[in-house]
Write a structure and sequence with these properties.
Structural class: mainly alpha
Helix content: over 70%
Distance between the termini: 91 Å
Shape: elongated
Number of helices: 40
Radius of gyration: 35 Å
Number of strands: 0
Largest sheet: none
Length: 690
């Protein structure tokens, strides 16, 4: 039989993915006794790789005694392209140790691609040195792979040097550099390179557009329009980028125009473009349009298996627009279809469970994720941690968190935030230190949570360390950070530091003013608190409920009756804001302590809210001070009827009677306290300087 014909058939089996004929040919070659011929072995190896039978390929490789550089290159390329670049690198090391072959340009390209995928910069640089010593700089394809490796390892300065050394850069060389700068957000460099390119192609334009999309810039749409005017054909990637920008800036009219152009260009039936349209309409809060688009595509392509990304986009749109019941129905349809649910579907389903506060349903989704092998997935695992944390299952959240091989900022942020809310402050500091030591990106919301923990513990030392960290990372001017730092210093009794921060702040909004007003009030600087309140009003800033609460608390501590009364009335008259129970508590306590009981009675009678225990307690305390016996008896009768077994009420009544020297009534209350049991003793925390 013609051996060259056999080789031709082997290659055909690989291309057509004909498994059984390929196996038969392998057996036939063994019978012919030419199995050890490296030429036949390499072709059989390539066939098994094309058939994705990597175990068979590995077995054949191990059985092949006579190997050449093609044998090694085939195996390295196979593992690199199949998502196992780390194994490809092991093959490269094994080949070097065997000293059997001298690498060529093709082998170096395969191993450099593996280095880029795993981010192995050190190995990449060593190979770069070997390429240079082998005088392979003339090989543009190899240089492009080297360029891509440096870009993937985020070493653009090294990539630029390689680019400048390429004798004849081709479009791939230019596009790799432009894309690299774009992904890093260095759009000035990317655009400069783009305009230097002899003839930018569609990939070049798309790289520039994608770069501007990444930094959320409207310039991306300008380049789309320019690309259209130049007569270049817009493809699915261009449309997706343009639609993403429309969604980001809620440009509904522009999205509809692009939708029309998509249909005219024949991309309307493309799942990728349809998904982008659904995403864009959803992000523009045009969910009806998104559903319409989804249904139109669904009539032509009913099977979920054929276009899971489109279903995921629709699911995400429902989550974004808080249509949780519709989202649950979509998840059910995807599951019932028999489609293999991916991490994106599971992530959206878990978000719906969080939005609905349905922990039981969340556990069911997690169970399905575990069965499907996504339990420890980067995205699914992080959102599951958020699910547990949102339901105050901190131990379970921590247990899963520590099992995750990769954790995104959502998992860290959610866990730290909920630990802060639940008073697990030591755990907050521990997690924050882990985050910093791992050199992961720390955002302003995480720092804000850590500073709240410092405030709760009055941990000035740790708070100052966090402040230093903010300065080093360049966060000290962020408004949320400034406000959190002011709050931390105020609660730690260092109001002067808080004031210094406030005065240094260049942008002072309502939140910032609220922080300093509350801080001054907490530290006995009521006059300054009122002054800051008037200052922000003068600047045209609108106070919120917390601002009013802060200034009213400051007035209450200082006894500023007239100022407080004027500010309280302005909530309704000037700002059309209905006071909350906390605002009423401040003004009731202030008026009653000043002896203005008539005004207090009128205020309570006009309250749209039912007076709570705190208001009655404040009034009782003032009655004792001002010897209002009849009012004490009236309040006592009301409280004992509504809350007869509340120890705090009985203690307050006993103290009020004692102040009025009504010893019998006071003793009676003490006896009642013994019957119902005393309230739990309070606890406090102090930090001792060593």
């Amino acid at each position: 039989m013609d051996l060259h014909r056999i080789v031709s058939v082997i290659r055909q089996c690989g291309r057509l993915r004909a498994f059984r004929p390929g196996r038969s040919l392998h057996g036939h070659i063994i019978k012919l006794g030419v199995f050890n011929d490296v030429f036949f072995a390499n072709n059989l190896l390539a066939m098994y790789v094309d058939l994705s039978l990597f175990k068979d390929a590995r077995r054949l490789f191990d059985e092949t005694l006579d190997r050449n550089v093609v044998t090694w290159t085939t195996m390295m390329s196979a593992y690199t392209n199949s998502g196992s670049p780390d194994i490809a690198l092991k093959f490269y090391v094994q080949m070097l140790e065997s000293k059997s072959e001298t690498p060529n340009g093709f082998l170096y390209s395969a191993v450099l691609k593996a280095c880029g995928l795993v981010g192995d910069l050190e190995s990449g640089k060593l190979i770069h040195g070997r390429v240079f010593r082998a005088h392979l700089g003339f090989d543009t394809a190899l240089m492009n792979t080297l360029l891509d490796m440096y870009v993937k390892c985020e070493r653009l300065s090294d990539a630029q040097k390689v680019f400048e050394d390429i004798l004849c850069p081709n479009p791939t060389s230019w596009n790799t550099m432009i894309s690299g700068y774009g992904k890093e957000g260095l759009m000035e460099e990317a655009v400069n390179l783009f305009y230097q390119m002899p003839e930018p192609d569609t990939v070049s334009w798309n790289s520039i557009i994608a770069g501007f999309v990444c930094i959320e810039s409207l310039v991306s749409l300008e380049f789309v329009c320019l690309m259209h005017r130049k007569g270049l054909k817009l493809d699915g990637f261009t449309f997706s980028c343009a639609l993403k920008t429309c969604g980001c800036f809620k440009l509904v009219v522009m999205a509809k125009q692009i939708h029309c152009y998509v249909n005219k260009s024949g991309f309307g039936s493309c799942c990728f473009t349809a998904s982008a349209l659904v995403d864009s309409y959803s992000n523009c809060n045009e969910l009806d349009e998104a559903i319409k688009m989804f249904d139109e595509y669904g009539r032509c392509n009913a099977c979920v298996l054929d276009c899971l990304p489109l279903w995921n986009s629709m699911l995400s749109g429902c989550v974004v627009n808080e249509q949780n019941s519709v989202a649950i129905n979509l998840v059910s349809q995807i599951h019932s279809s028999g489609a293999r649910i991916d991490s994106y579907t599971f992530g959206s389903a878990l978000k719906v469970c969080i939005n609905l506060h349905n922990f039981r349903l969340g556990l069911q989704v997690q169970g399905l994720a575990v069965i499907s092998g996504y339990e420890l997935d980067y995205v699914v695992g992080s959102i599951t941690v958020d699910l547990y944390a949102n339901n105050r299952k901190i131990r379970d959240a921590l247990r899963l968190f520590h099992r995750l091989p990769e954790k995104d900022i959502v998992a860290w942020s959610s866990l730290i935030s909920w630990c802060t809310k639940m008073g697990q402050n030591t755990l907050v500091f521990s997690l924050f230190m882990d985050l910093v030591n791992l050199d992961l990106e720390v955002d302003q919301f995480i720092i804000s949570s850590v500073l709240k923990a410092c405030s709760s513990l009055v941990g000035l030392g740790i708070g100052k360390q966090v402040h230093s960290f903010c300065v080093k990372r360049g966060y000290e001017s962020e408004r949320i950070i400034v406000t959190s730092l002011i709050d931390m210093y105020a609660k730690c009794g260092e109001i002067e530091d808080g004031l210094a921060l406030f005065y240094c702040s260049t942008v002072r909004d309502t939140v910032c003013y609220t922080g300093i007003i509350m801080g001054c009030g907490q530290n006995g600087r009521a006059m300054e608190a009122v002054g800051f309140f008037k200052e922000m009003i003068g600047l045209g800033l609108k106070p919120n409920e917390i601002t009013f609460l802060g200034v009213l608390c400051a007035c209450r501590h200082a006894g500023f009756v007239q100022e407080a009364w004027t500010i309280f009335k302005s909530m309704k008259t000037e700002y059309k804001m209905e006071p909350c129970i906390e605002h009423y508590h401040c003004i009731v306590e202030l008026l009653s302590q000043a002896g203005s009981f008539k005004e207090v009675e009128e205020l309570i009678a006009q309250m749209p809210l039912k007076p709570d225990q705190t208001i009655w307690n404040s009034l009782l305390g003032a009655c004792g001070t001002h010897k209002k016996t009849e009012l004490v008896n009236f309040i006592a009768e009301y409280l004992l009827a509504t809350l007869p077994e509340d120890p705090s009420i009985l203690v307050t009544l006993s103290n009020a009677y004692a102040t009025l020297e009504m010893w019998d009534s006071s003793s009676k209350m003490r006896e009642e306290i013994k019957k119902v049991g005393t309230k739990e003793a309070g606890r406090s925390w102090i930090q001792i300087r060593s």
